[in-house]
Write a structure and sequence with these properties.
The complex is a heterodimer of chains A (197) and B (389). Chain A is mostly helical and 197 residues long. Chain A has ten helices and two strands. The termini of chain B are far apart. The chains are: A mainly alpha (197), B mainly beta (389).
Chain lengths: 197, 389
């Protein structure tokens, strides 16, 4: 199962890059037919062997656990570009950036050796982390925030062991997700400051 | 989202979290795993002093070998594993193992290749730049486990750990499995020291992290399946930048001492203790033995003394000595010099006790050979008497 799922992120990334590239050239690839062609091309590129390994597995060689959150964001982006469907509204995206950045700030410095406490340890079996994420998910559902669906997808993927990792943290956040969140929140802040000026 | 959908999704959320919680609830009544300490029942102290030395691998010529480990199967066979190639980190580096049938007169088998970067790449289905540090240890029956390092990019700080298992004493091996142990690209996790068996049938494997921080950790693994598949988790022994490569000596179900390689300017062997079977460890202290930023290994003797193999220098690895502690590592008596030659390097000692009570030490001999030294406790006592006189 993790092996099959490992092709999903690279596949979505290739579609998104092709959509972005053609968008820059002024071509609109929305709609069923162009999307179907893009899907076929992306699937072909993802499984094309380069030096004995499919292109997707080269990407996974350097980061095997792209989080479910990042995969979901990418899926929503592809869906929006293809059919104009917005699964995650602005509010949900903002929650996603804040959640991921907070998780990254808590997780990475300590996991890389800052102090004796390692929060990553909490992801290997039922612990305070599960209680916190479950609480956040229910709170977001009550607030009708669609980011809750991404968190539900993350725990579902964890239970199904869709990633190579068996640690819940890896389903919630990854270094690229934190980087994307940083960029998104910074640009949002800059935009606000510029508007105020 | 309408109200009905919110209710359905809330119930789904609770159900999805109930699954991992049920696993946790089922463990609540169980005794936590403790160390399964092994103290030989035979009267090893009354034996005659005994000590033999031999090389395990043939001379690799211009090549190198490093990081030997050793274990024993229930039928008495000894197995060692190490890595070798043209140079450390070279693309041709492979992990080898050799077998020795029971008895002092038998020879080590010709080294067999277990895994190299090509086979690791095929088994793990990803790009592997190089392989390194292996440890080999025995499970129940003919089960063998090999934990080894692979690197896809960068140097040793780009290391990830993988496990391979054999259910027929190394005749055939299962495909490697990657262990995800770090949230940051799963890098900077290495292994070097021998595992401690647990009462649950699992193992506490001392590992270490080296990237921005350098610190010791424990990899807890549990296997009960025929295919050698394992469940695992990791815990931290301490943080910081100073201590790595823990050698754990258990002397009771919950009690153990860890000895650390020291990277700091203190240049002395580090030590920490646990009283809760490795769940928490004391702050590391240094003891009155030097350490030139090199690996040490310790083993528990039958009369509660601890034997340590170490480089007795703050500068280099030109000697390899043995020391004994009567007080669980606080004070040490140097009992023997196994190697001492200027310009040579002796490193990465790894000790086990075999079923007959003998102590087997393997180490890297000038990066050219893996040396095997066998001795008994009577030999240790004879060395102590010689020192006392």
């Amino acid at each position: 199962m993790p092996l099959v799922f490992s092709f999903v992120f690279p596949f979505l990334l290739i579609i998104a890059l092709l959509q972005g590239g053609t968008g820059l050239l002024g071509r609109d690839l929305s709609g069923w037919r162009p999307t179907l062609i893009l899907v076929l091309i992306s699937a072909f590129i993802a499984v094309t062997p380069v030096g004995g390994l499919p292109l997707a597995r080269w990407m996974m060689s350097f980061n095997a656990n792209f989080s479910v959150s990042l995969t979901a964001i990418l899926f929503c982006k592809v869906l929006e570009s293809s059919f104009g469907v917005k699964l995650l509204d602005k509010n949900a995206l903002l929650t996603c950036w804040v959640f991921s950045l907070t998780a990254g700030v808590i997780l990475y410095p300590m996991a890389l050796g800052l102090g004796r406490f390692d929060p990553y340890q909490a992801g290997w079996g039922f612990s305070w982390l599960f209680v916190v994420v479950c609480g956040v998910t229910i709170l977001l559902l009550i607030m009708k925030n669609r980011f809750a669906i991404v968190l539900i997808a993350a725990i579902l993927a964890y239970n199904l062991r869709l990633l190579e990792s068996t640690n819940l943290w890896d389903y919630l956040v990854d270094p690229f997700m934190v980087l994307v969140s940083c960029i998104a929140l910074s640009s949002r802040l800059l935009r606000k400051l510029r508007n105020r000026a | 989202m309408n109200r009905r959908l919110v209710i359905i999704l809330t119930l789904a959320t609770l159900l999805l979290y109930a699954w991992p919680m049920s696993g946790w609830l089922s463990t609540l009544g169980r005794e936590p795993a403790t160390f399964a300490t092994y103290v030989p029942s035979i009267p090893v102290v009354d034996d005659k002093p005994f000590m033999v030395e031999e090389f395990i691998n043939p001379d690799p010529g211009k090549g190198m070998v490093h990081v030997g480990s050793i274990c024993q199967l229930p039928d008495g066979k000894l197995i060692t594993a190490w890595y070798g190639g043209t140079r450390e980190g070279a693309k041709d580096v492979a992990i080898f193992f050799a077998i020795k049938d029971p008895g002092h007169l038998t020879r080590w088998s010709k080294p067999k290749r277990v895994v190299d970067r090509i086979s690791a790449s095929r088994e793990l289905y990803r790009y592997i730049k190089k392989v390194g540090n292996p440890i080999i240890f025995a499970g129940s029956g003919d089960h063998l486990y090999l934990i080894y390092v692979t690197i896809s990019a960068g140097g040793w700080s780009g290391s990830s750990l993988n496990v391979k298992a054999s259910s027929d004493a190394g005749a055939t091996w299962n495909n490697s499995r990657r262990l995800t142990l770090s949230p940051f690209f799963n890098i900077s996790e290495l292994v070097r020291n021998k595992p401690v068996p647990l009462s649950s049938g699992g193992f506490a494997v001392p590992i270490y992290h080296e990237c921005l921080g350098y610190f010791p950790e424990i990899l807890w693994i549990q296997s009960g399946r025929e295919d050698g598949a394992i469940a695992f988790r990791k815990s931290r022994m301490t943080g910081g930048q100073s201590f790595i490569q823990p050698s754990v000596v258990a002397y009771g179900p919950s009690l153990a001492t860890a000895f650390y390689r020291c990277r700091s300017d203190e240049k002395a062997v580090g030590v920490a203790v646990t009283k809760d079977a490795g769940l928490s460890w004391s702050e590391p202290q240094t003891v009155n033995l030097p350490n030139p930023d090199s690996a040490v290994d310790a083993i528990h003797l039958s009369d509660h003394r601890i034997l340590l193999a170490f480089n007795d220098s703050v500068q280099n690895r030109e000697n390899l000595r043995l020391a004994v502690s009567n007080d669980r590592g606080a004070n040490w008596i140097r009992i023997a010099t196994l190697e001492s030659t200027q310009g040579k390097k002796y490193s990465y000692p790894y000790m086990i006790r075999s079923q007959d009570g003998l102590i087997h030490l393997v180490y890297t001999w000038h990066r050219k050979r893996i040396k095997h030294v066998v001795f008994n406790e009577a030999w240790i006592n004879a060395q102590m008497k010689r020192i006392a006189n």
